[in-house]
Amino acid sequence: MSKPAVRIRLADAAFALFDERGYEQTTVDDIAERAGVGRTTFFRHYRSKEEVIFPDHDRLLALIRDRLATSSHSTALVAVSDAVRLVLLHYLDEGDLARRRYTLTSKVAALRDREIASVARYQRLFREFISDWMGDPTASASLRAELMAAAVVAAHNHVLRRWLRAEASDPVAEVDEAMREVLALFPTPQFPDRTGDGGTTVVAFRTGQDLDALLPSLRRLIEDASVR
User: Fold this and answer.
1) Nearest 5°: phi and psi at 72?
2) Which candidate, 10, 70, 76, places its Cα nearest to that of 40?
3) Which of 168, 170, 177, 179 has most Cβ atoms within 10 angstroms of its Cβ?
4) Does residue 100 carry a pLDDT above 60?
């Protein structure tokens, strides 16, 4: 039997026992016996009973780092949105297992604490990436990076919880929209014009407004900028 198949069998056995006996009353030996494997095999796949419950955060964090590392300065925020979508898609692929985990962690305080600690790892990774992207060592920039990272993680978790509660029919579309709202809260850092020839900068963005309704506002913005 392949390694992924054994991991899945152990996870299925664990959650079945948690449902039947409760989390605290279930042991590693119980899980191994229910899955039809030995104790050694269990520890070859999981370091503890708690680890069976949670996704492979190390692998997910590595996926995020890889996606962020492929971005350029101009595509950094796109990479952040893509990375958030990667994490959400992992939970969607888990399907019912993710929902069973959500139910269990809602009941067991120790598991909630571990989940919170895991969330902090994602926020730290995004904060470090955003801080590097900003390239500003000041305290205010550091705070802005922290706030952006917290908002990114909160947006993902908000959509994920809606899906876990069967409230979101299209969670991928929801998380994309949530990320657009989050990133719109923070201004893009301004960098000096190194071309030396002035010119016109065109900024592209997405809006739900019709073009005819939007044009007057754009004209006013241009006129205001020209008189400064």
Assistant:
1) -100, 180
2) 10
3) 179
4) yes
Convert 22-45 to b/e letters by CB count within 10 Å (16 or more is b): ebeebebebbbebbebeeeebeeb
What is d(CA 40, CA 134) in angstroms, rounded to the nearest whole number?
47
The whole-number pLDDT of residue 224 equals 52
What does the DSSP 8-state code read for residue 171? Answer: H
Contacts 24+ apart (CB under 8 A), 15-23: 15/53, 15/97, 15/100, 15/101, 15/104, 18/104, 19/100, 23/104, 23/107, 23/108, 23/111
This prediction has a pTM of: 0.76
Helices (H), the chain: 3-21, 28-35, 39-45, 49-53, 57-69, 76-94, 96-107, 109-134, 139-164, 171-184, 211-226
Burial of 150 (0-12, 13-18, 19+ CB in 10 A): middle
Residue type, position 125, single letter: L
104 contacts: CB under 8 Å, gap ≥ 6? 15, 18, 23, 53, 111
pLDDT of residue 2: 54
